[in-house]
Amino acid sequence: MSAPAVIKREPLLAQLRQTRVWDVIVIGGGATGLGIAVDAAQRGFSTALIEARDFASGTSSRSTKLIHGGVRYLAQGNVKLVREALSERALLLTNAPALVKPLKLIVPCYRTLEREFLRVGLGVYDALAGSRGIGDTRWLSRAETIAQLPGVRAHGLLGGVAYWDAQFNDARLAIALMRTAARQSAVVVNYIEVDRIELEAGTVSALMARDVKTGERFRLCAKVVFNATGVWADDVRRHAHGAAPSLTTISRGSHIVVPASFMPGASGMMIPRTTDGRVLFAIPWEHYLMVGTTDVAAPGPTWQPEASAAEIEYIIDTARDYLQSPISRGDVLTTFAGLRPLFSPTAAKATKTISREHAIVIEHGNLVTVVGGKWTTYRKMALDALDQAVKVGLLDARPCRTAGLKLEVDDSIETACHEAETAAFAGEGTDSITEFVALAINHEQAHYADDVIARRLRVASLSDYAVSRVRPIVSAALEAAKKKGHSNEWP
Ligand SMILES: Cc1cc2nc3c(=O)[nH]c(=O)nc-3n(C[C@H](O)[C@H](O)[C@H](O)COP(=O)(O)OP(=O)(O)OC[C@H]3O[C@@H](n4cnc5c(N)ncnc54)[C@H](O)[C@@H]3O)c2cc1C
Question: pTM for the whole thing?
Answer without folding.
Answer: 0.96
